[in-house]
Amino acid sequence: MALLTPEDLEDLLNKLNMNNNIIKEATGMDIAQMCEAVYGTTPSSQKVGIVPITSGNGIIGNFSASLLAITEYFGLEGFITEHPDITGYHQAVAGGADIILMADDHIFIAHNLRNGKIATNHVCTGVIYSEIASRYKHTDSKDVLVIGLGRVGYAGASHLVEKGFNVYACDPNTDFMNKAIEELGVKAYDVDKPRKFSMVFEATPNANTISEGMIAERCLVSTPGIPCALPDELVEKYDIDLVMEPLVIGVAAMLYSVF
Ligand code: 2YG
Ligand code: MG
């Protein structure tokens, strides 16, 4: 998993607004409505405690501040604890947090202390980005392509299968591929037999994972992956609706999933 950099998180709410407009135009729903539809929840007056974590590669500049901005964007009160780690956790609970947000290099969680629900960023990101792809209004096809079957891609593929979509997937890792075929029943996308999709969910840490053979004219590509899966010229040439944003959409899904 690639770690976020402070630069990825610059201008975050601007990126969100741009992506929210694309999502609205492409699906008829904004990100909050999409989260409501998936999780069946709405924000009430939960207070969110954000705990910076120093383990591994340590604090990422802008990370906690971004989580606070996201919390407030969705109408909730939040605070960043003065201290990190266990002392910070204690401060969050003592300060009346209903929901704790915290991340180390391996996992990023939202934990609702009132109802016991716990969510991970990788599952929620997979679910919400695949949901966005699946709601593309310019197609009536049920075929979706999933590129990358790591933690995020697998969660999205699983969500799409549960929703009754016809899921094609690819990943250079044959163990990941076989697991998704056996456990989820996805079909292997064969690069030697190009087939074009109107809905693509991409979840890899690599650039240029989407090739011309995979995409239909006027398609939706939904991807949390940094760097972007698509070269700029393909976005123009195929009139692609591209949803790609570094943090907010996944965190929104985490919050809604624990409300
Ligand atoms: O508290 C801090 O500042 C750090 N311990 C946060 C570390 C987060 C590491 N995780 C990532 O960089 C991302 N891969 C998380 C996923 C968010 C984007 N989908
Ligand atoms: Mg990528």
TrEMBL record:
SUPFAM superfamilies: NAD(P)-binding Rossmann-fold domains (SSF51735)
Domain Pyrrolysine biosynthesis protein PylD N-terminal: 9-118
Protein name stated in the entry: 6-phosphogluconate dehydrogenase
InterPro entries: NAD(P)-bd_dom_sf (IPR036291), PylD_N (IPR048757), Pyrrolys_PylD (IPR023914)
Organism: Methanococcoides methylutens
Pfam families per record: PylD_N
